[in-house]
C-alpha cells in the first residue's frame, strides 16, 4: 500500500491546482457551518444527561478553541494545500504511512456520512410535518432526491455550493446568535436553582463528550478551502473568528437550554425541545424561526460535507496517500473522481438509521482527533505545534470518550466506525492496482447547446409548478388559519425548493461565468505575453488599456498612459482610430532614441461606446539589421570591384552557380557576358 517503508511519495505531476475562485466571504461561510450543528447535537445531549450537559460543553468548547488555534498554525505552514486538518495531520504521521492514511480516511468517512444522515433527518422532518396536514409521503424518496440534488450540485463545482451556502448560512447563523444572546439574557433574569446544574456521572459525561466534539471541534472547516480561496491568509483567519463565536453559541445556548428545561422529557424531537425553550423569547414566531434554523443547519451541513470530503480526497491523492486516480481534475477544475468516491461512500450508508450513521461517523471523527493530538505530541519540537502537553491530555480524554463513552452509546457501531477507514484503505489499495482511466470514476455530467437549455427550463418550470401546487394544497388543507404545523411544513418545503432552485440557477449561470472567466484569463495571458504592443483606445484615440509590451515601448506604466491620446506618442498618426486600418509605419516621438513602429487599429465588434484595439510592432531592430546588411553588401561589392576579383556563388539547393557581376575584365568579358552556370 505504500511505496517504501517509512515514506510517502507524492504524485509526480505538479501542474494541476484547484482554481482560486472563492471569495473570503464564501470560505468563511463554510467555516461557520458547524456552529449551526449545535441545533442538532444540543437537544440530544440535553436529553441524555439533562441540564448537567453544561459541564460537558464548557471543556469541549475550550478544547474546540485550542483545536482551531492549532489548525490555524498548521494551515499557515501550508496555505496552498486543500482539505485542511487531515492533510496537515498526515504530515505529522509522515513516517507512519498506514496511520497517516487511516487518519485521512477517518476524517473523510466522518464527513461523507453527514449528507446521508442529515438527508434522512430532513426527510423525516418533512414527512412528520406533512403527515399532520394529511399528506402521507414515504421518507426515502425525499432523502434520495435531496442527496442526489446536492451531489449533482457538487459535480458542477464548489462555487455553486458556496453561492447556495451563503444564501442560507447568514440568516441561519444570525438567528442562532440572537437565540443564544436572548436566551442567556432570559436565563440570567430567571430564578434557576443551582441544583439544576448537577455534574453527571463520569461514564455519561464521556458519552456526552463523544457527541459534543462533533460540533465543537468541527469549526476548523474553513482551512479545507485555502487552495480555493483568492486570499488564503484571510480564509485561515476565519478559524480565529469561529473560535471566538464558539463560547457564544455552545456555552450560551446550552446554558439557556438547561435553564429553560431543567427536567427534559424523553422522546421529544429536536424541534420540539428548541421550540419549548424559545417560546418565551419569540412567541408565535418560534415555530418558524426554529424550523428554519434546524432545517437550514441540516442543508448547510450537507453542502459543507460534499465540499470538504472531495477536497481531502483530492489532496491526499496528490500527496501520495490515496490512489492517483482520485487526484485528477476536470478542465473546469472540479475533482469529480474525488466527488464520486465521496458519493459512493455516502450511498453505502443510506440503508441505516440517522442515529446509527452519526454514531459511525462520530467514532471515525473522535478517533481522528485522538491521533491528531498524539501526532502533535510526537512533533512537540516543531515550531508549528502549540501546547504539546495539552495535546497529550486531549488525546487521553478523547481516547477515554471513544472507549467508555462509545461503549455506552453503542460499542458495536463504534468499533465498526473505527474499522471502516481500514476497509477504505483496502479499497484504495485495490483501486491503485486496477489502473482504471479517470473517466471510470466520474459520473457523466456533460450538457451543452439547446438540449441543455431545454433541460434547465423544464426543470425550473417543474420546480416552480410543483412548489406552487404544494403550497396551494397546503393552504387548502389548513384553511384560512395557518397553524404551527402548517408553518413548519411550509418552511421545510420552501427551504428544499429554494435550495434546489438556487443550486440549479447558480449551476447554470456560474458554469457560463466560469467559461467566460477562463476565456478572459486565456485572452489576458495571450495579451500579457505578446511581444507586440497592444492598446485599447476610445473613439477619440485616448488610451484605455495597455499590455506590458506597450508599457515598455512607450516607456510609461499603464496608469500613466490612461486617457492620453495615442498621437502624442506617434506624431505622424492623424485622424480618428477608424482611419488607422491597415499596417503603416510611423516613428515614435519623444526621447533621444527614434523608434520605428508598424501600427494598425481594429474596431471592437461588441464594445459600446466604440473602442479600438491598436497593435504596434517595433521595427527598429529589424530596420537597423536591414540597414546593416545593405551597408555590408555594398562594402563587399566595393571591395570585390576594387580588387578586380571574380566571385562565384554556388546555390546547393537550386544547383546553380552565379557570378558576382564584377571583375569580368580579367576574362576579357563585360559584366553582362559572364555566364550563369548550372552545377552538375
- Oligomer classification: single chain
Order of helices and strands: HHHHHHHHHHHHHHHHHEEHHEEEHEEE
Report low-confidence residues grouped into runs of 5 or more.
1-15, 443-461, 471-482
What is the structural class? Answer: alpha+beta
Beta-strand portion reads 5-15%
Specify the biggest β-sheet: 5 strands, antiparallel
Distance between the termini: 70 Å
Q: What would the principal axes of the Cα set say about the shape?
A: elongated
Protein model, in words:
The chain is an alpha+beta fold. It has 20 helices and eight strands. It has helices at residues 24-36, 38-49, 54-77, 85-92, 97-132, 139-155, 158-188, 202-216, 232-236, 238-260, 270-282, 286-318, 336-347, 354-378, 388-434, 449-478, 484-529, 548-554, 558-561, 620-642, and strands spanning 533-538, 543-546, 584-588, 595-603, 611-618, 648-651, 656-659, 677-678. A five-stranded antiparallel β-sheet has the order 2-1-5-4-3. A hairpin with a 4-residue loop joins strand 1 (533-538) and strand 2 (543-546). It starts with 23 loop residues before the first helix and ends with a strand.
List keywords for this structure.
680 residues, 5-stranded antiparallel β-sheet, 3-stranded antiparallel β-sheet, elongated, disordered N terminus
Amino acid at each position: 500500500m505504500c511505496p517504501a517503508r517509512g515514506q510517502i511519495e507524492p504524485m509526480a505531476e505538479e501542474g494541476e491546482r484547484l482554481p482560486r475562485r472563492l471569495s473570503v466571504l464564501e470560505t468563511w461561510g463554510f467555516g461557520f457551518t458547524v456552529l449551526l450543528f449545535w441545533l442538532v447535537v444540543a437537544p440530544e445531549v440535553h436529553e441524555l444527561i439533562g441540564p448537567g450537559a453544561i459541564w460537558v460543553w464548557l471543556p469541549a468548547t475550550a478544547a474546540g478553541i485550542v483545536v482551531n488555534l492549532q489548525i490555524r498554525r498548521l494551515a499557515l505552514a501550508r496555505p496552498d494545500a486543500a482539505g485542511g486538518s487531515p492533510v496537515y495531520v498526515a504530515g505529522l504521521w509522515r513516517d507512519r504511512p498506514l496511520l497517516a492514511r487511516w487518519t485521512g480516511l477517518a476524517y473523510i468517512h466522518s464527513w461523507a456520512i453527514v449528507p446521508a444522515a442529515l438527508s434522512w433527518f430532513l426527510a423525516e422532518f418533512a414527512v412528520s410535518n406533512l403527515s399532520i396536514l394529511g399528506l402521507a409521503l414515504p421518507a426515502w424518496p425525499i432523502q434520495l432526491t435531496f442527496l442526489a440534488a446536492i451531489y449533482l450540485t457538487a459535480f458542477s463545482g464548489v462555487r455553486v455550493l458556496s453561492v447556495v451556502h451563503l444564501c442560507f448560512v447568514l440568516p441561519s447563523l444570525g438567528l442562532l446568535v440572537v437565540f443564544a444572546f436572548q436566551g442567556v439574557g432570559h436565563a440570567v433574569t430567571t430564578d434557576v436553582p443551582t441544583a439544576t446544574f448537577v455534574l453527571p456521572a463520569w461514564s455519561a459525561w464521556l458519552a456526552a463528550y463523544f457527541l459534543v466534539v462533533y460540533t465543537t471541534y468541527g469549526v476548523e472547516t474553513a482551512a479545507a478551502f485555502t487552495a480555493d480561496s483568492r486570499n488564503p491568509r484571510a480564509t485561515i483567519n476565519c478559524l480565529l473568528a469561529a473560535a471566538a463565536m464558539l463560547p457564544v453559541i455552545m456555552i450560551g445556548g446550552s446554558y439557556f437550554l438547561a435553564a429553560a428545561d431543567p427536567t427534559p422529557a424523553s422522546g421529544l424531537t429536536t424541534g420540539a425541545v428548541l421550540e419549548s425553550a424559545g417560546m418565551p423569547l419569540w412567541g408565535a414566531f418560534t415555530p418558524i424561526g426554529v424550523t428554519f434554523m434546524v432545517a437550514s443547519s441540516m442543508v448547510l451541513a450537507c453542502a459543507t460535507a460534499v465540499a470538504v470530503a472531495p477536497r481531502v480526497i483530492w489532496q491526499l491523492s496528490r500527496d501520495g496517500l490515496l490512489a492517483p486516480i482520485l487526484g485528477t481534475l476536470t478542465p473546469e477544475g472540479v475533482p469529480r473522481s474525488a466527488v464520486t468516491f465521496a458519493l459512493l461512500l455516502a450511498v453505502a450508508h443510506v440503508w441505516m438509521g440517522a442515529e446509527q450513521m452519526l454514531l459511525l461517523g462520530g467514532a471515525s471523527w473522535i478517533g481522528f482527533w485522538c491521533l491528531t493530538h498524539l501526532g502533535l505530541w510526537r512533533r512537540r519540537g516543531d515550531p508549528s505545534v502549540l501546547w504539546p502537553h495539552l495535546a497529550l491530555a486531549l488525546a487521553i480524554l478523547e481516547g477515554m470518550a471513544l472507549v467508555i463513552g462509545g461503549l455506552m452509546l453503542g460499542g458495536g457501531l463504534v468499533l465498526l466506525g473505527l474499522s471502516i477507514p481500514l476497509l477504505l484503505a483496502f479499497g484504495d489499495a485495490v483501486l491503485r492496482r486496477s489502473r482504471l482511466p479517470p473517466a471510470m470514476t466520474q459520473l457523466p455530467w456533460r450538457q451543452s447547446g439547446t438540449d441543455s437549455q431545454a433541460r434547465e427550463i423544464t426543470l425550473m418550470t417543474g420546480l416552480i409548478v410543483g412548489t406552487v401546487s404544494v403550497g396551494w394544497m397546503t393552504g387548502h388543507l389548513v384553511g384560512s388559519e395557518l397553524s404551527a404545523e402548517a408553518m413548519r411544513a411550509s418552511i421545510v418545503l420552501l427551504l428544499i425548493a429554494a435550495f434546489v432552485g438556487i443550486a440549479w440557477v447558480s449551476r447554470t449561470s456560474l458554469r457560463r461565468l466560469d467559461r467566460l472567466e477562463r476565456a478572459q484569463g486565456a485572452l489576458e495571458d495571450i495579451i500579457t505575453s505578446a511581444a507586440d504592443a497592444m492598446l485599447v483606445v476610445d473613439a477619440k484615440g485616448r488610451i484605455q488599456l495597455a499590455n506590458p509590451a506597450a508599457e515598455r515601448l512607450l516607456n510609461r506604466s499603464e496608469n500613466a498612459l490612461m486617457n492620453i491620446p495615442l498621437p502624442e506618442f506617434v506624431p505622424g498618426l492623424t485622424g480618428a482610430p477608424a482611419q488607422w486600418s491597415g499596417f503603416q509605419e510611423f516613428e515614435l516621438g519623444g526621447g533621444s532614441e527614434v523608434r520605428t513602429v508598424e501600427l494598425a487599429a481594429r474596431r471592437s465588434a461588441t464594445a459600446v461606446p466604440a473602442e479600438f484595439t491598436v497593435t504596434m510592432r517595433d521595427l527598429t531592430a529589424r530596420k537597423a539589421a536591414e540597414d546593416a546588411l545593405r551597408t555590408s553588401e555594398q562594402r563587399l561589392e566595393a571591395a570585390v570591384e576594387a580588387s578586380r576579383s571574380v566571385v562565384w556563388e554556388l546555390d546547393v539547393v537550386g544547383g546553380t552557380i552565379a557570378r558576382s557581376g564584377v571583375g569580368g575584365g580579367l576574362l576579357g568579358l563585360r559584366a553582362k557576358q559572364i555566364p550563369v552556370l548550372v552545377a552538375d
